[in-house]
Amino acid sequence: MNLILLFKKDLQSGPDKVCLKGRRHKHVFSVHKGKVGDKFLVGMENGRMGYGQLTAIDKNHLEMKVALDQKPPTPLAVTLILALPRPLMLKRILFAATSMGVKRIVLLHSQRVEKSFWNSSLLKEEKYKEPLILGLEQAKDTVLPEVIFKDKFKPFVEDELPDMIKETLALVAHPEASRPCPSQVKKSVTLAVGPEGGFIPYELDKFISLGFKPVSLGERILRVEDAVVALISKLF
Amino acid sequence: MNLILLFKKDLQSGPDKVCLKGRRHKHVFSVHKGKVGDKFLVGMENGRMGYGQLTAIDKNHLEMKVALDQKPPTPLAVTLILALPRPLMLKRILFAATSMGVKRIVLLHSQRVEKSFWNSSLLKEEKYKEPLILGLEQAKDTVLPEVIFKDKFKPFVEDELPDMIKETLALVAHPEASRPCPSQVKKSVTLAVGPEGGFIPYELDKFISLGFKPVSLGERILRVEDAVVALISKLF
Predict the structure, then answer these.
(1) What pLDDT is recorded for position B13?
(2) Angle of helix A87-100 versus helix A125-139 axis, rounded to 10
(3) End of a domain among B54, B70, B86?
(4) What is the distance between the alpha carbons of residues A212 and B211, in angstroms, rounded to a whole number?
(5) Looking at residues B216-231, what average pLDDT do you find?
(6) Number of domains within chain A
(7) pLDDT digits 0-9 by tens, B165-176
(8) Do residues B19 and B40 touch, judged by C-beta distance below 8 A?
(9) Mutate which of B233, B234, B235, B236 to test chain A, going by most A C-beta atoms within 10 A?
(10) Which of A95, A103, A228, B30 has CA 20 to 30 A from A142's CA?
(11) Which residue in the set A184, A223, A231 is minimally distant from B183, CB to CB?
(12) Is 0.90 exceeded by the ipTM?
């Protein structure tokens, strides 16, 4: 945890006074052995960052006086469209993508996505928000990504995607593509990444028909969670 | 599993005849529902790749006739020096680095590495070879990385590292560096990545005194396992 993410509800006794219990308190108390006067990097959900200075701490709670005067880092100019991965992998990808600065993630159905993945409890907001929060705390950022679920491939791709990719460089990751993934891209990107085993030809053709360019990371095939990190890192 | 990695001991009844039981048999039998005549991509440990055609299969074993006529992909020109991560993370990094084509990994002690990590059973060859094999099978490669353990920081850095970095671009990942990680590098790279929390100043200075350049991935701080993938992807 490189930043403590704060929420409106933590501001109980004034606009600059924070009271924390639970996970964040435990981290400061047990890992950092925080004492009154110590300062910690904090940030308000979707707001500014700054420092919090401990004014009280015991084994049950802590209080901080906060001063939020810094902007969070610039969002990465990318929309990630991802075939819904299995829950454990989804959790890791949400964490990693958030820590890299992705602010819009579309989780999409595809032929090779197991239908049961759509019943995972991780798809409930209170659950999938956890790795997003941890990703922001890892990266020192405050702006939560928007996560959008699209459990029907065709209506999303035909009706919504054409507008979404306007003014962006639209890329679909495809291990067999001859075009390498570009680097140091200066414009906004829409990046589609398939499931393990890839998009089926019909799906790939749909993306291509909208103007997506298939790109590859080379002859080695990466696991989806590593491919997402590798692609985003190479692009920007 | 995008390739079945074969070992000398699998060649029991002739130079092109393979008999498999256990994990690899189970994958072909249960996941692919392989039938006599089906072909699978195979590769010999540290050797050539090609196809294996099923000549027999039942619920206990399979037999294949193999023809190995392709070279494995070109190794990535990088030596990864990594402060020993906690075992679970080490396993994931070994898998990811192997799947990206890294062929030499030095696991190094550093002040912020917990001493107990050096007692992990994962440091035994029969254990750490597992994620390497899975990484090769993921990536369609055959050449196992060399994994080197250095449990003393100073003697390794002073006595061995100067020779190791000759003719290479030596980089040390450091989130506070002002120089961004370079991309599309054409020469060999030695890349040092610290533990969670980073190398301590003494260690960083040691790397710098040998000619390592501190580089960063931007203002966001990534977890080590994501940083390794992001750095390697950006470099090549």
Answers:
(1) 77
(2) 40
(3) B70
(4) 42
(5) 97
(6) 2
(7) 999 999 999 999
(8) no
(9) B233
(10) A228
(11) A184
(12) yes
Tell me the CATH number at A188. Answer: 3.40.1280.10
Q: Which of B96, B140, B222 is opposite residue A100, by nearest beta carbon? A: B222
Report how far residue B229's alpha carbon sits from residue A232's, in angstroms, rounded to the nearest whole number. 10
Hey, what are A95's tokens? 């964490």
Q: How far apart are CA A194 and CA A202, in angstroms?
A: 12
Domain match, B221 and B163 both: yes
Final residue of a structural domain among A42, A70, A98: A70
SS3 A121: helix
Structure tokens given for B4: 């079945």
Q: Indicate whether B110 and B140 sit together in one domain.
A: yes
B55, B65 Cβ separation under 8 angstroms = yes
3-state secondary structure of A124: coil
Decide if A230 and B233 are in contact by the 8 Å CB cutoff.
Answer: yes
Q: Which residues of A touch B193 (CB under 8 A)?
A: none
| CATH for A65 | 2.40.240.20
SS (H, E, C) chain B: CCCEEECHHHCCCCCCEEEECCHHHHHHHHHCCCCCCCEEEEEECCCCEEEEEEEEECCCCEEEEEEEEECCCCCCCEEEEEECCCHHHHHHHHHHHHHHCCCEEEEECCCCCCHHHHHCHHHCHHHHHHHHHHHHHHHCCCCCCEEEEECCHHHHHHHHHHHHCCCCEEEEECCCCCCECCCCCCCCEEEEECCCCCCCHHHHHHHHHHCCEEEECCCCCCCHHHHHHHHHHHHC
A39/A135 same-domain check = no
Is residue A193 located within the same domain as residue A99? Answer: yes
B163 and B211 share one domain: yes
CA distance B163 to B160: 6
- A141, A220, A223, best to mutate vs chain B, most B CBs in 10 Å: A220
Going by pLDDT thresholds of 50, 70 and 90, the confidence category of residue A12 is confident
Whether residue B169 sits in one domain with residue B144: yes
Residues A59-91: tens digit of each pLDDT: 999 999 999 999 999 999 999 999 999 999 999
pLDDT at B14 over 90: no
- Are residues B89 and B40 both part of a single domain? no
- Would you state the pLDDT for residue B12? 79
Contact B234 A233 (CB under 8 A): yes
The closest alpha carbon to A120, from A80, A85, A83, A155, belongs to A85
Question: Which percentage of chain B shows pLDDT scores above 70?
Answer: 100
Q: If pLDDT is split at 50, 70 and 90, which confidence band does A121 have? A: very high
Structural domain harbouring A22: 4-70
pTM over 0.90: yes
B115 and B187 in a single domain? The answer is yes
